Amino acid sequence: MIGENYLTVHMWDKDFNPYNHEILSTLVWARLLDLHVHYFHPDAMTKIAQRIGNLLQVDHAMSTGAILDYARVCVQVDLTKPLLSQFKIHGIFHSI
């Protein structure tokens, strides 16, 4: 991290051209709204985050129980797939 921003670094490629390089994934902080308090458990949060992308980090405030209005997770999102705006748990839709 640089400040509060993530820096993505890739292996060097001698044929790298920044003008035609495709970005296939990115890191995002996803805010998970309207979750019941029992979903704030690390195992549940991991399963939820994996629906969005590869879980990298759980917001420290959420993991300590300081904020229970929403959860924030940092995930690596595959940009070649459609982005999620919501997900369903036990028949109930939750916004991202």
Automatic annotation (TrEMBL):
Classification via InterPro entries: At4g02000-like
Full protein name: DUF4283 domain-containing protein
Protein's organism: Linum trigynum
